[in-house]
Amino acid sequence: MSLGSLQVFVDDVDISDMNVTWLRQQIGVVSQEPILFATTIAENIRYGRLDVTEEEIEQAAKEANAHTFIKELPQVTQIPPTHSPFITRPINLPTSS
Predict the structure, then answer these.
(1) How far is Cα 31 from Cα 85, in angstroms, rounded to an integer?
(2) Is residue 10 in some structural domain?
(3) 55-93 pLDDT, tens per residue?
(4) How far apart are CA 92 and CA 81, in angstroms?
(5) Burial of 95 (0-12, 13-18, 19+ CB in 10 A)
């Protein structure tokens, strides 16, 4: 089979017959490797939506089955002062040697 005769179908529809803009909007990529930024857990969760509330951050952690794990992390220096583990616990990333 040559690449010139290759066809790709989505729900029995040849993608060459689809609106390309619409098709691209339907596709998402989920990396298999987690990527964390050297900031707080809350900021990592907030990364995709800056207007998210602290309650929504905690709900996202619950939905990702990470809430209990986060709550059990040891407390670290609070800057700014707060009682939320989501705001105060920075993620310590390994440094390059």
Answers:
(1) 26
(2) no
(3) 898 898 899 888 888 888 776 544 444 445 555 555 555
(4) 19
(5) exposed
- CA 11 to chain CA mean position, Å: 27
Nearest to 42 by CA among 27, 52, 30: 52
* Nearest C-alpha neighbor of 46 from the set 84, 8, 78, 97: 84
pLDDT tens per residue, range 41-53? 888 888 878 888 8
Please give the tally of structural domains in the chain.
1
| Residue 13 in domain | no
Residue 74 lies in a domain: yes
Domain that holds residue 47: 41-88
